[in-house]
Design goal:
Structural class: mainly alpha
Largest sheet: 4 strands, antiparallel
Strand content: 5-15%
């Protein structure tokens, strides 16, 4: 049952604001599993035999050969011919199974050693949950403490010294040929192919982490192949490892290999960041994102949040996005790019070929976007240090390739998100802003957004544009329209301004539906770092007050079977539906929602035993004395709120119906 309760903040001295209290605690609960839907697999295939063919061709008698008794134990169990290569046979290696050797003693010894290695790997993985220690101002060791023994950090490897065994070669190939594009999208995959793979040939830490991602992905693919169901993909509500792993916590030997490689990478990196100043920002970004990717694939959201926060602390004042702008900003919006550009030039001086300009925005963008999901706290670390000064660097049609265009857009989009999040925080805290400065920054961003629209249209008119590049540009158009709407309404504390953008919301939804009808290759792992469609759909549900449009967005969120960074459609739609219910309770006969009935979702906690989301909402209009008004909902995670019945709506709200007629 979905329960509703309202609370009003007491005057100061009686009751602390839940928002402030939540900020003090900065806690996050692990996310819960989706209810699973398993396709029937109990149908036996029917075989037909042509009787006339059998009569015309008499059955041949199989040649008799003496039984080979010298093969390995695994091949005997599998009842296949063993090639008897030692110490392990090639047949087992080719089949990707463990070869138990040629005698029972070998098998017993190997199983015993295997169990011991699994136990050690599981213990080390459990002990390494806090992967990146927080850097402290006093250096690697607190005063009065000494390290008795310091294990030397392995030096970077030269390409000629890179050595991989046969199984690791498979993980490496899986990463570079498939995972790069699946996990980081078509645009960022170019940078990751060029930068990360090059780094892996020189740095053992990157190499081990890369192999860990390859191994854990291989473990997941084998499990999904055995179940043959799309719904087994990982989700913020149902981590794949939680459901499919046995009691020991390990799925198969690929999972074990992933843990071993991961523990090695963590051990090396821990030693490096004991002195944060000696670790390059490039290394921090690459390693943090690789560690985050490993945890994301497993559904370990607490670890993702911790890793992202610590990575951002290590980047403070070390990249252009975390360099604070000067106190006296120039009056002319066009000249506002000069201070930050000079900072970026200073930071990258002497290392223009290290690829930093292509990847430096990825971790800050991930940290900020996670904050909009209501389940992460890493944005609290990132926000104070971020530089949101608008900077324009446009691609040149006919010269700049689409992959580089996506990098330019990612840098601009990240700064726009900083502006949006700061406006949202001020709105939730009823904090007064410098309206002159805020209006100038808003106008500058909107001017740059219009310029981006013109450039994208020129690119899309190119008839020689490849399909993947065209889809990438259409997705950028979706995000461009999204930030145009949100930034345009950023100075309105009541959200009434959004009503004037109903046509834009309709255009945004239509673009999303068109894109979803031909999305191109979808990640086989149910997760991608790339910004996708969950963000604009969730914004339509929360900010568009047209019932039909927001319910169509709810329908689309429910159909998304993959997760985009920290965004999970099936998780968000539960909390966002609470906003719809609270607002439409106050809807008048004409479908208008007054300012006193507009709400925003602030936070949520999952109750696994009750299978509920305990969500907290804030009314955008405070009481007459300025105190905030909160509502608390207990939402059933298995049954979505029926918000249509409150307004007498009986529509299906399926945006794909018009294409099926």
């Amino acid at each position: 049952m979905n329960n509703l309760s309202f609370t009003q903040a007491m005057p100061q001295g009686h009751q602390a604001s839940p928002y402030v209290e939540g900020a003090r605690q900065s806690r996050i609960l692990p996310l819960l599993p989706h209810p699973s839907t398993i396709r029937p697999t109990n149908q036996d295939p029917e075989l037909s035999v042509n009787g006339t063919g059998e009569a015309s061709h008499p059955r041949r008698k199989r040649a008799s050969r003496p039984k080979v008794r010298s093969g390995c134990i695994t091949c005997k169990i599998r009842r296949v011919k063993c090639d008897e290569r030692k110490p392990t046979c090639f047949r087992c290696e080719k089949a990707d199974v463990e070869c138990d050797g040629y005698t029972k003693e070998d098998a017993v010894f190997k199983r015993s050693a295997e169990q011991q290695r699994l136990a050690v790997a599981a213990q080390e993985a459990q002990a390494s949950r806090q992967l990146l220690p927080r850097p402290n101002e006093s250096g690697p060791v607190a005063s009065g403490q000494e390290i008795a023994v310091r294990v030397p950090v392995p030096p970077p490897l030269c390409p000629s010294t890179l050595r991989l065994n046969q199984e690791d070669v498979h993980y490496y190939d899986l990463f570079r040929h498939r995972l790069v594009r699946d996990l980081w999208g078509s645009g960022h995959s170019d940078a990751w192919s060029r930068i990360v793979l090059q780094e892996s040939s020189q740095d053992p830490c990157v190499q081990e982490s890369l192999l860990a991602i390859g191994a854990i992905s291989q473990a997941q693919m084998l499990e999904e192949m055995s179940k043959d169901q799309l719904d087994a993909m990982p989700s913020a509500l149902r981590p794949w490892g939680t459901k499919m792993a046995p009691s020991g916590g390990l799925l198969n030997h690929h999972h074990r290999s992933a843990l071993l490689h991961h523990v090695k990478a963590v051990s090396i990196y821990r030693q490096r960041i004991q002195d944060p100043s000696s670790t390059s920002p490039r290394s921090v970004i690459i390693m943090t994102l690789l560690f985050v990717g490993f945890e994301f694939i497993q559904g370990n959201m607490n670890n993702v949040d911790t890793l992202t926060s610590t990575g951002m602390r290590l980047l403070e004042n070390r990249i252009s996005l975390t360099q604070r702008p000067p106190r006296h900003a120039p009056e002319n919006g066009n000249n506002s790019t000069q201070p930050s550009q000079s900072v970026a030039t200073q930071l990258r001086r002497g290392m223009r070929n290290d690829g930093m300009e292509d990847i430096e925005h990825l971790l800050p963008c991930l940290a900020l976007m996670s904050g909009f999901t209501h389940f992460f706290n890493s944005h609290r670390t990132a926000m104070p240090m971020m530089n949101g000064t608008p900077i324009l660097e446009l691609p040149e049609p006919g010269v700049t390739v689409v992959a580089k265009l996506e990098v330019f857009w990612g840098q601009f989009f990240t700064r726009a998100v900083v502006h949006i999040m700061r406006s949202l925080h001020d709105q939730l805290r009823y904090k007064q802003r410098n309206i002159t400065q805020a209006a100038l920054e808003q106008a500058t961003f909107l001017s740059y957004i219009r310029m981006w629209d013109s450039v994208l249209e020129v690119y899309l008119k190119d008839p020689s544009l490849e399909d993947n590049a065209r889809r990438a540009l259409r997705k950028i158009q979706i995000h461009r329209l999204l930030i145009h709407i949100v930034i345009s309404c950023g100075l309105d504390r009541t959200d009434m301004c959004y009503d004037a953008f109903e046509a834009d919301f309709r255009d945004l939804l239509n673009r999303i539906v068109t894109y979803m009808r031909d999305p191109g290759p979808i990640s086989k792992f149910g997760f991608t770092f790339a910004e996708g469609l969950t963000t604009p759909l969730a914004t339509i549900v929360a900010k568009c007050r047209n019932h039909e449009l927001r319910m169509q967005a709810v329908h689309l969120l429910n159909t998304m079977a993959w997760r985009e960074s920290a965004w999970d459609g099936k998780a968000l739609v539960i909390g966002k539906s609470g906003v719809v219910m609270l607002e439409e309770r106050g809807m008048d006969a004409n479908g208008f929602i007054p300012s006193g009935s507009r709400w925003v979702w602030m936070s949520g906690k999952w109750d696994l035993e009750k299978r509920e989301l305990v969500a907290t909402y804030l009314r955008l209009m405070p009481n007459e004395d300025g105190s905030p008004v909160y509502a608390h909902l207990e939402l059933d995670m298995d049954n979505l709120l029926d918000t249509c019945s409150m307004v007498g709506c009986h529509g299906r709200h399926d945006p794909f119906e018009r294409y099926q007629k």
